[in-house]
Write a structure and sequence with these properties.
The complex is a heterodimer. Chain A is built from 15 helices and 18 strands. In chain A, the strands form five sheets. In chain A, strands 12-18-17-16-15-14-13 form a seven-stranded antiparallel sheet, with no helix packed on it. The longest helix of chain A is centred in the middle third of the chain and has 21 residues. Chain A is extended, with a radius of gyration of 33 Å. Chain B is of the alpha/beta class. Chain B has a single domain, classed as Rossmann fold. Chain B contains eight helices and twelve strands. Chain B has a nine-stranded mixed sheet with strand order 6-4-7-8-3-9-10-11-12, with helices on both faces. Chain B has a two-stranded antiparallel sheet with strand order 1-2. In chain B, helix 5 packs parallel to helix 6. The radius of gyration of chain B is 22 Å and the shape is elongated. Chain B starts with a helix and ends with a helix. The chains are: A alpha+beta, B alpha/beta. At the A-B interface, helix 15, strand 10, strand 12 and strand 15 of A face helix 3, strand 5, helix 4, strand 6 and helix 5 of B. Strand 12 of chain A pairs antiparallel with strand 5 of chain B, so a sheet runs across the interface.
């Protein structure tokens, strides 16, 4: 049903057509060249159309079908959005199959007034967004899945009551796949209750371990872990509003409150935060996520609030924000420092700059705020790399004896020689990017051979002879000659690799 | 009656003056500068060097070389440097080439920005930071009056030096701007003899500077080996040899 409802939501189809008239809609997809129904709405289901039926059969049943091509990618992203939205109930949310969600609500339900109140809130919200939902709460994921998909009216299974609740459900509710379920039914085992009595060894011998494993998982005899979509935060603070909030200063003051909560917790644990995520839950159901990182662990609420100011200003809060959840994703130990008494020698110059680097990094990305670090290589394009300031300081030595240009081109550019090509001297007049340069003086060559332990396609053509070349008007270039010349072939080419100051 | 009016007018005036005084920027307490290490140039400049709390503009083919030299000077007094460049440019500042100007690499922070707006933002953030020595921004064209004014105010707030690098056309250079000085740095041929010696020669001209009425220019030479900037006495170097004679034959 998710796909059809997603399509409804996107096209606002429901609002345009009269509600009283039944409009059977199916979404279709091609499997091995045959057009199949991948999803159908209530009206279509009522007329006997079921998913995985071929379109021709469906049309025979219901000639007035409205047919829409399926879009699995949009369905997945919609499910992702719903999953993000569901993190307001619990941080532990995972996607299950094509249209389901797991929510681990251990220790969360009482915050929302108990399981029943929570379920009611969830279904009301989902139906407001335009989605039909089925749900179940049980001790184990397996039992909850079975009850949600095949269960009757009773949706809340009491603790340790799953054995009784599952007994009457069909075997397919165990998530064992169609083929195995059909085989079981052929043997006369139609409900899960029938399986309880059977000896396990015989089942395992005939069907493999899957069935007994699933059964044990559903009954809680074997663990079935759910991995959350996002790593669970160490520290989390939440704030829900009675009325949606959309004013900037209100949001900011609320954020500061959340930050202060988290920072005081961090202080108790002698920790500082490196990465924070702020989730904003909007009234219309969308979720906005803001990421903020720092170069060193911090726990000053005001400093962190400044980092959020820039991304917050870009957020369109629409009709308002219902809930804000702040989670500290990465924390590192941060001991209390004595200010101005002992200076940390290692980080001496980074500390006053840290707040600047945080601000730059949060807007430009930390990968874009870098230091230049030497690397042991003869090849000029490998001798330096850019390391993010967020990483620890890397030390090395810069080669000082070699003469190197101030600016290096990422990709060497071919220059056209006007006065012929020779390997023993650079061209006397050359053309680069439509400009003509006549050479006034040269120095070289410096021969650089490729490093055999490094596979680099740029150096596949062998060694290069580098020359410093000064043009008539004073510009200084770094040219190199590549290729070879012998009787058979002449593949000598000149390239420009850099500029001197 | 008349007296009353006068008194109230005087009062109003005083209040207005106080108001204006509040709006006005406080005068710089002391003028600091980054010296070039060359007396001839330093003495021309009113602050005795490249003034702090100010934004300067550098154009010409060797603008980045001059910026690298100034970065080296800032490193010699242990001040960090923020260098803002456009992210998608195909060329990059090369560490081994910077080292020869005395730049300490652990003091250099590169910020790769998306577009002019982010470069200007990053420069402003850097300029406001008091511990930073020099902020360099490589732009594709000259900045507007408003943008340069913003940078100037940021530099005054942080007592830092801002450097706008661009290879703008001549009409852009004439455009109004709030920069304190404007330089043009072009590379000049170095040699007298055949091979290139390990030196870098620039034609340095001061196109605009308050209290320097006339355009001044100098030919300077950076010696990689000695790490010094020196004035070249003869403007045009010797006789030009033809490339044929100059090239090394191996």
């Amino acid at each position: 049903m998710l796909s059809v409802e997603r399509w409804h939501r996107q096209t606002k189809y429901a609002s345009k057509t009269k509600k009283s008239l039944p409009v059977p809609i199916v979404l279709t997809d091609y499997i091995n060249g045959v057009c199949f129904v991948s999803d159908a709405n209530h009206d279509a289901l009522a007329s006997g159309v079921t998913p995985r039926m071929s379109l021709a059969d469906a049309r025979a049943l219901e000639p007035n079908l409205k047919i829409v091509p399926a879009d699995p990618r949009a369905d997945t992203s919609m499910l992702g959005k719903i999953a993000n939205w569901a993190t307001r109930y619990t941080p532990w949310v995972a996607i299950c199959g094509r249209d389901g969600l797991w929510l681990d609500i251990s220790g969360c339900a009482h915050l929302l007034g108990g399981e029943e109140a929570m379920i009611k809130d969830l279904t009301v919200h989902l139906s407001n967004f335009g989605f039909t939902s089925r749900f179940s709460i049980a001790d184990t994921p397996g039992a909850a899945w079975a009850m949600a998909h095949y269960g009757g009216e009773e949706k809340l299974i009491a603790p340790d009551a799953q054995r009784l609740a599952l007994a009457s459900l069909p075997v397919i509710a165990l998530r064992i796949g169609d083929i195995k379920a059909v085989e079981l039914i052929r043997l006369g085992i139609s409900s899960i209750g029938d399986l309880y009595a059977l000896p396990r060894a015989a089942i395992a011998k005939r069907f493999g371990m899957v069935i007994s494993e699933r059964l044990d998982q559903a009954l809680g005899l074997m663990p079935e872990p759910i991995s959350p979509r996002r790593p669970l935060p160490k520290y989390r603070a939440e704030c829900s509003f009675l009325e949606p909030v959309s004013r900037k200063d209100n949001i900011e003051s609320c954020l500061l409150q959340l930050l202060e909560d988290i920072c005081s917790n961090l202080e108790c644990a002698s920790q500082g935060v490196r990465q924070l995520i702020l989730d904003l839950f909007l009234v219309e159901g969308a979720t906005k996520t803001l990421h903020v990182g720092t170069v060193r662990p911090v726990r000053e609420a005001k400093c962190i609030a400044k980092l959020f100011a820039e991304p917050l200003s870009k957020i369109d809060s629409g009709f308002g924000i219902e809930t804000m959840i702040l989670s500290a994703q990465v924390v590192e130990p941060l001991t209390e420092s004595q200010i101005n008494v002992l200076v940390d020698e290692r980080n001496e110059e980074i500390v006053p700059l840290a707040s600047l680097l945080d601000r730059l990094g949060s807007r430009l990305n930390f990968e874009h705020v870098t230091r230049l670090v030497p690397k042991a290589s003869h090849l000029p394009d490998h001798a330096m790399r850019q390391v993010s300031v967020a990483e620890s300081n890397m030390h090395g030595f810069w080669p000082e004896t070699q003469i190197r240009p101030l600016v290096l081109l990422d990709q060497p550019e071919s220059v056209e020689s006007i006065t012929g090509i020779a390997y023993y001297q650079p061209p006397e007049v050359f053309r680069w990017r439509q400009n003509r340069y006549s050479v006034r003086a040269t120095e070289g060559p410096e021969r650089i051979a490729p490093e055999w332990w490094r596979r680099d396609r740029a150096w596949a053509r062998g060694l290069r002879d580098y020359w410093r070349v000064e043009a008539e008007e004073g510009r200084r270039f770094w040219l190199f000659c590549e290729g070879r010349r012998d009787r058979q072939c002449n593949s000598l080419r000149w390239y420009l690799h850099g500029f001197f100051a | 009656m008349e007296k009353n009016l006068k008194a109230s007018r005087g009062k109003d005036l005083r209040a207005l003056k106080a108001q204006i005084h509040k709006i006005e920027r406080p005068k710089k307490r002391r003028s600091e500068s980054l010296t070039l290490g060359l007396k001839a140039i330093d003495s021309t400049l009113p602050e005795g060097g490249i003034a702090t709390s100010a934004v300067h503009e550098v154009t010409g083919s060797s603008g980045n070389g001059f910026a690298a030299f100034l970065a080296g000077q800032a490193c010699s007094i242990n001040r960090p440097i923020l260098w803002c460049v456009e992210d998608d440019s195909s060329k990059m500042l090369y560490g081994p080439g910077l080292v020869v100007f005395g730049v300490k690499m652990d003091l250099l922070i590169m910020a790769r920005c998306r577009g002019t707006d982010e470069i200007l933002w990053a420069m402003e953030e850097g300029l406001r930071e008091k511990s930073i020595g020099l902020v360099v921004g490589e732009l594709s064209k000259s900045v507007s009056l408003t943008a340069s004014r913003r940078l100037q105010l940021a530099a005054e707030a942080g007592c830092t030096i801002g450097l706008i690098l661009h290879d703008g056309a001549s009409e852009e250079i004439a455009a109004p701007s709030a920069v304190t000085t404007r330089w043009r740095v072009d590379s000049l041929p170095t040699l007298k003899s055949g091979t290139m010696n390990n030196k870098t020669r620039w034609g340095l001209s001061l196109c605009r500077c308050r209290s320097v009425t006339k355009k001044r220019s100098w030919d300077v030479e950076w010696d990689n080996a000695a790490n010094t900037l020196a004035l070249v006495s003869d403007a045009k170097c010797g006789t030009l040899a033809s490339p044929n004679q100059v090239c090394l034959k191996n």
